[in-house]
Amino acid sequence: MPDSFLMESKNTPPVCNYEGSDYQTSFWDQGGREYEDRTEAIALKRLLPKSGRLMLELGAGAGRNTPRYLGFDRIVLNDYSHTQLEQAQARLGKSEKYIYVAADVYRLPFVDGLFDGATMIRVLHHMADAPKALTQIKNVLTPNGTFILEFANKLNLKAILRYLLGRQKWSPFTLEPVEFVALNFDFHPQAVLNWLKELDFSVERILTLSHFRIGVLKRFIPTGILVFFDSIFQWTGAWWQLTPSVFVKAVGTKQASRSMKRELSVLEFFKCPDCGHSPLVDKSEYLECPNCKKKWEFKDGIYDFREPMDTHNA
Ligand SMILES: [Zn+2]
Q1: pLDDT at 28
Q2: What is the CA(275)–ligand 1 centre distance, in A?
Q3: How far is the CA of 274 from the centre of ligand 1 (A)?
């Protein structure tokens, strides 16, 4: 668990901020999460399209999963934390392939219909208003774009047992999310599927992960064996979802009205997150909105759309 803290931003739900967090090191590199990491790699391979043009990775963090999006020409790494993106940049390098954008998922700075793929893994977990975030994502995807979503499942075996034994107050069987720690939410699978359906997504595949996320198993059974059995059990997600982590592949149901005739420049990706205007004007150290005049910083290869520049002078 990172030292997360709450940030209130205008008219949007609070954001779980990983700024300055050593999440990558403490949780993934030294936290005994090799099993989770390897099972996620397998799930992504099973769900990702073979190829694609432009991928949006929401909550990219330090870029742990980014190299797995091999088939996509370009990838936009989005995170609310600037320092996480700096870590990702140090890991992946500055290249045409990767674009780093600090932004609030509730105020995405991208034009509609831009991405043909998006992923959000271990992020919905921190969403106080999940449907609002999912709507934003739907808007920036092409009408037939692919969305791969991971969510933490409240209807997991451990929670069911604890509830039935009277050791847990909240019911795992009801549709509303449970906030078990501030800004940490588990969701009912049916609730997530309902939200996706309302947004005109068709769910093509469901995989369940972390069947063996149990301390004693992880300590005494070689990781490779747990990963092997988890990879087989993942397919049972098609019939029931009782594991702590669920992956969903959702695809937009409408045909794209027009094919992208030419490759867009990065500048053309963006809209002003405050007023929605596009295009923005490139002023080299920042992008300026010609409509509301707000300035959005571009520094050391990272676009920052969280707060406009010079707000303290305004
Ligand atoms: Zn504007």
Answers
A1: 72
A2: 4
A3: 5
